[in-house]
Amino acid sequence: MPHRPFLRAWAAAAFALFPGLAALPAAARDDAFKIGLILPMTGQQASTGRQIEAAARLWMAQNGDTVAGRKVRLIVRDDTSLPDVTRRLAQELVVNEKVDVLAGMGITPSAMVTAPLATQSKTPLVVMAAATSGITEASPYVVRSSFTLPQVSVALADWAPRNGIRKVVTLVSDYAPGIDAEKFFSQRLLFNGGQVTEALRVPLRGPDFAPFLQKVRDARPDALFVFVPSGAGAAVMKQFLERGLDKAGIRLIATGDVTDDDQLNGMGDGALGVISSHHYSAAHPSPLNKKFVLAFEKANPGLRPNFMAVGGYDGMRMIYEALKSTRGAGGGDALLAALKGQVFESPRGPVYIDAQTRDIVQNVYLRRVERVNGQLYNVEFDTIEGVKDPGKSR
Ligand code: PHB
Question: Where is the signal peptide, in residue numbers (predicted)?
Answer without folding.
Answer: 1-28
